[in-house]
């Protein structure tokens, strides 16, 4: 069974804090993704990584950065959290080779920035 | 640009059928369908590829009209367990990234 785990289910941070969201997958997948989920807007891609140290911007990268130092781990960083970054954050992974493969999602981190 | 899903929400009685649509403004290479129950991670249902190949669960059926740039998910003889939010994700570039629609909330009542 593929497992994608995220470091926290719930997180509360203050405006201006640096926030790290961690994601780990155990199936040796090349591709990893960070999405943001907001009501009515579905899942919006923040960043995508196709290999260690390799990344591509998604649809809404502003205010976020990512790090992938090991194949199994993909981190999302909010350099200076703002209230408009309050949201549900989902990590996903899949094998490399294009969109012919299903994505496996983690349980999500609900981040509240006050 | 995100694909457009319709309807936005639907309520069914057990045993009834439903169709969820996903329309894109771009030519599509693949369409993914996922279901998310409240408080849980999205779960894979089906992938439809340009050219007609499909991968997914046997009990789920879907169509992919390449000309119309749209896909439909068919839920027949619905069960209570079908309740949740359904998302389509589309790829127009034969790449690795998907663009997801806003979701369709489905509620099945006894």
Describe this structure in words.
With 114 residues, chain A is mainly beta. Chain A has no helices and eleven strands. Chain A has strands at residues 4-6, 10-13, 19-25, 31-38, 42-51, 54-57, 65-70, 73-78, 87-94, 104-105, 109-113. The radius of gyration of chain A is 13 Å and the shape is globular. The relative contact order of chain A is 0.33. The mean pLDDT of chain A is 95. With 110 residues, chain B is mainly β. Chain B has no helices and eleven strands. Chain B has strands at residues 4-6, 9-13, 18-23, 30-36, 43-49, 54-56, 61-65, 70-75, 84-91, 99-100, 104-109. In chain B, strands 2, 4, 5, 6, 9, 10 and 11 form a seven-stranded mixed β-sheet that branches. Chain B has a four-stranded antiparallel β-sheet with strand order 1-3-8-7, with no helix packed on it. In chain B, strand 4 and strand 5 (43-49) form a beta hairpin. The mean pLDDT of chain B is 93. Chains A and B meet through strand 4, strand 5 and strand 10 of A and strand 4, strand 5, strand 9 and strand 10 of B.
- Over the alpha carbons, how many angstroms does the gyration radius of chain B reach? 13 Å
Largest interface: A-B, 29 and 27 residues
| Mean pLDDT score of chain A | 95
Care to count the β-strands of chain A? 11
Shape of chain B: globular
Class derived from helix and strand content of chain B: mainly beta
Strand content of chain B: over 45%
SSE topology string of chain B = EEEEEEEEEEE
The radius of gyration computed from the alpha-carbon positions of chain A, rounded to a whole number of angstroms, is 13 Å
Q: Which structural class fits the helix and strand makeup of chain A?
A: mainly beta
Helical content band of chain B: under 10%
Mean pLDDT of chain B: 93
**Unreliable segments of chain B (pLDDT under 50, ≥5 consecutive)?**
none
Helix/strand order of chain A, N-terminal first: EEEEEEEEEEE
Helical segment count of chain B:
0
Oligomer: heterodimer
Estimated helix fraction of chain A: under 10%
Strand content of chain A: over 45%
